[in-house]
Each structure stands twice: as C-alpha cells, then as structure tokens.
C-alpha cells in the first residue's frame, strides 16, 4: 500500500511540472561509440590464510609457479602449499576514446575455493579483448566487497568477500583505432526505441541546427548528415546535439518484481471498468501421532497410531471494489488503494486484471 501511495505522490509531482524535458545525451547513444569488454586471469597474493587450497585448486599452483619462474625463481619439483594466494578472473570495460596511459577500474572475482580476498593484492595481470589482443594491464590492492570471520564452532559472512574492485587499477596499453573526426554520417541510437520520441528528437535537432540535418530512420535510429552544414567538426557538432532537450514518450508499462514485492506503473497505464474482490483461503493440516505400547513385561508390541487434524479457514473478503473505466494513473492508484490489501496481494490482483483483458499496458514480471 505504501508503494501505491508513493506512486501517487510521484504523479502529483509530475502534475506540478516536475516532468522536465530530457537531454538527448540521456536518451540516446552515438552509434559506434561504445566501450569494449576486457578479461584476464590473475593471482591475488597477501591473503591472511583465506586463499585457495592448492589441493582443490591446481590451477592456482600452476599460475603461481609460472609467475615465480618469470621472476627468476625456480620452483621445479618444490613442494610449496601457501594459503595466502587465490586465482581470480579480472574484468574491466575499456571506454570509448580511452588513450594509452589512462586508468580504468577493474573487478576481481575468485574462481577457486578462497574464502576471502580481503587485504589481497592483484599481481600484474594482462587484460585481453575479444580479438585476443592485450589492451590494459591491471595491478593493485583489492577492495573486497564483504567480510568473513570464523571461530571453532561458528562463522559469519557479510556481503560477498570473494569479489572486489580496484579503482583505477588498470592502465591502458593499447588504443582502439577509431577516428571520430573523419565521420560525416552519424547515427543516434535511442536506448528505449519509440517512434514518437524519435520523431521529437529529429524535429528538435532540425529546429535547433537546421532543416535536413537529422532524419528519422526507424523507432530507434536518427541519422545525422553533417555535410548539410558544410565542413564541421563532428565532435563539436555532437556536443551541441547532445544538450538539446526533448520530452520523451514511453509505452504504458506495469513492472512487477516478485522478489521484493515491488510494483511500478507508468503514467499512461489505463484500466477498463472492472470490479475486484479479494479474500484469503487457508488450509492447515496437523499431524499428531500417538504411540501405544504394552505395560512392562506384558506381551504385545508398540504401535504408532496416526492422528491428523485438518481445517480450512477463510478470512472475510473485502467485497467488490469498482475501478472506473479508462482511469488515469491517480484514479487507478486510488481505486486499488481502496482495496486495503498488501502489495504482494496486489500483484495477484493485477495479474488477474491483466488476464481479464482490462489492463491496457505492457505487463512485465521479473
């Protein structure tokens, strides 16, 4: 119920003029300007006895031996079983236009049976892209995402101590070849494709910078022909375009998260005239077996006699609550709120209204 009241408050803010236009940079991406995923396999050292057990993680021993040999330490035929190292997978995203020498954040996750990466340090790890080339090298102290403590008879874990991050932990060694200054035909890709929003973006750009510069291609793409303005710098042109404001349009949606019981409804959600009634039916079955046994030294045998108690209870219903047809969001929220039920029961009601064909919105259940 509190969630529905919160939605009603949001709607009142929107009616007061809080729904401001949105910049194009927050609605769309430039086609071709994107990041690249990087991945590497490395070793975290300096753990306080919470690393991999080499008996169960032989790959940790292999990478550790390879690292020491590269550093000039011969460990052939040596029996070493340290508990302060852990094999990890290192991931990062190489941003668009990242230059050699710039630094990026990395994420670290254990792949063996290490208990925690707290206090560890990632040793120099090359990061590869999908083409197999090395684009960055990561190294640094790991900031673990949780904590773990244990004693002789109990243990406690908070968060996920086997994952962590290294802020600015990787240095870019190779740049992605991409010359933006030579591009004359650009394309804007809407993050949420919609014909109305795309048409508004096209009109706003042409109104601001000149007719014929932008052309609507489909619901998610607007083509930009910079040659209409003569010889211009594409980067400077996009700097002007991305700050133009547009009022976006979105399809009516109802989004439900079963895990948390969250319900989110868009402003354009409509419900046809429908009557709703809700009640709870509870079935309880109890088993209370009895044991019958003979007196001491008397003939006979012990027998278990089953006893079952079953009952069905039905809580008083709330009667029918009517929601008028073609209601606005505020009227929908008020109508559903009048039922006086919990958000998780509201999820079941919305499913039933959708199944009845009275909910005119895209219904998404996560």
TrEMBL record:
Record's keyword annotation contains Transmembrane: no
One family name in Pfam for this protein: FlgI
Key word Transcription regulation present: no
UniProt KW keywords: Bacterial flagellum, Cell projection, Cilium, Flagellum, Periplasm, Signal
Protein name according to UniProt: Flagellar P-ring protein
One GO CC annotation: outer membrane-bounded periplasmic space
Organism per entry: Paracoccus aminovorans
Subunit structure of this chain's protein: The basal body constitutes a major portion of the flagellar organelle and consists of four rings (L,P,S, and M) mounted on a central rod.
